[in-house]
Design brief:
alpha/beta, globular, 252 residues, 19% strand, Rossmann fold, 7 strands
Length: 252
């Protein structure tokens, strides 16, 4: 088992500054920086499943509310992403960073998002992509799994263990977003305004986020070169190399 401390968000937060190299800092900045263009000084943004709370290191908004399914010292409150407690049309942006593949009922999240977002509000999604190399890595480490027989559009059939917030099905983002026309017909309240694929070596040599895996520490300049290599690989064969994807949904 190559993966250690899986799901230990407290340890991940404490060890962040001690990590050798710029690998993890580069990865996190890459995953969060693009979201900032949708946030401003008057934005009320809510992050679901904040984990170690790294978003607050990179994102700024008038009100950035970190929430998680488990109590965290840095989370403002405990929130089930499938049962959002916010008032109707009260939120400007919902942030879901590698959360949706952990949900038992993803459909409930999108229904809730449509309810709580103000018209013109956004869902900012950073998620895994179950490419061929991702599947190989998952099998090799046993860290998380994937099941393409799941139906994330079904609000009654669980895609993960409902009692375990760390249960994971890495096929969920592909099942939801590979066919955006289907997604749009299912959720006509949303328009897709941005989507894209990213990350190969940047992820697999990051050392892990809320888990630790072996990696080669690299300085920031080297990580920028690695990122360029990743962009080429992902552009050539996203189904083979892309380990992450982003998606921006705008509430009608």
């Amino acid at each position: 088992m190559l993966v250690r401390y899986a799901g230990d968000a407290q340890r991940a937060r404490e060890e962040y500054e001690k990590r050798p190299g710029s690998n993890l800092r580069f990865l996190l900045r890459k995953r969060f920086d693009w979201m900032q263009r949708y946030l401003g000084p008057a934005t009320y943004a809510v992050e679901v499943g904040c984990g170690a709370g790294f978003s607050e290191l990179f994102l700024h908004a008038g009100n950035l509310e970190l929430t998680d399914a488990e109590p965290r010292p840095w989370a403002r409150r405990v929130v089930d992403a499938q049962e959002l407690p916010h008032a109707d049309a009260s939120v400007d942006a919902l942030i879901a960073n590698n959360v949706i593949h952990h949900l038992a009922y993803p459909d409930r999240f999108f229904r809730g998002a449509a309810r709580v977002l103000r018209p013109g509000g956004h869902v900012l999604i950073q998620e895994c992509n179950c490419s061929w190399t991702t599947r190989i890595a998952l099998r090799a480490t046993g860290h998380e799994g994937y099941d393409f027989s799941a139906d994330p559009f079904d609000p009654t059939r669980p895609c993960n263990d409902p009692s375990d917030p760390w249960s994971a099905n890495c096929a969920i983002p592909n099942l939801l977003f590979d066919d955006l026309d289907r997604f749009g017909k299912r959720y006509p309240e949303f328009a897709v305004v941005d989507s894209g694929m990213s990350e190969f070596f940047v992820q697999f040599n990051s050392g892990g986020v809320t888990a630790t895996v072996p990696y080669i520490p690299l300085p920031w300049a080297a990580m920028r070169v690695v990122d360029v290599v990743d962009r080429v690989l992902v552009a050539i064969a996203p189904g083979v190399f892309a380990s992450q994807r982003r998606l921006v949904l705008r509430r009608a």
